[in-house]
Sequence to fold (267 residues):
Amino acid sequence: MFTEVVILEIAKVAEELKVERAALLAVAEVESGGKVFARVDAQNLPLIRFEGHYFDRRLAGARRNRARAEGLASPKAGGIANPSTQEARWAMLERATAIDRRAALESTSWGIGQVMGAHWDWLGYASVDDLVAEARSGAAGQARLMARFISRAGLRPALRAHDWPAFARGYNGAGYKANGYHTKMAEAYRRFAAMDLGGRAPVAYARATILHTLPASAPDVKAARRDGLRGFARLAEWLGALPARRSAPAPDADRGQDGNALLDRSR
Fold:
């Protein structure tokens, strides 16, 4: 699951995109499995997936023959299996870049939004290298990359309406039902919306406010503290059932609305 810092960074991008924080977080979690980086050769690298059929289409002649012979390219979607570990996927990408660097980067999906490098021009990047640099820059950069795709593909209305089948169709393709993207996003949205307490405060701010001010005797508080954000989701549901919900205090005036001050205090 995403850390609180990552949640805040994605939430900020959601505000820039003018969509609900919980909605963008739901998409990011389903696409990434709640991870931003993989540790590869002592580096934090973005999650990737190499698509051999994309690579095949971008090659010709001797390069295509070499890529096919090395098990890196196939004319059929799914013809080249991705390794199960990110370390092995990065090794596969390195082998592909030795054949054709640009084609290899374009044939890879990048970051928490799993956006294909091939979209770099359509998304307004100067080159595929610029798209990759955005993905490698951190959680905020990966969220911006995902947001660019959502905006460019005209998917903001579906995201704002929580029309998950329509959104998944546009984001993941016509076969979205086979992988249950729409149902996974709906479930992730439900959890993040509960954490966000109706959108009044960032997750870390709300968590610090609720978990550290309610008495320890309140239902689920001890378990929530122990289980972190998952526990907080359960606690938020419990709070929602109360006749009157405790109000969160105003954010620190010197820190604005991002909740960083309370995040630091909650550690």
Q: What stands out?
A: The first helix runs from residue 4 to 17. The chain has a mean pLDDT of 82.
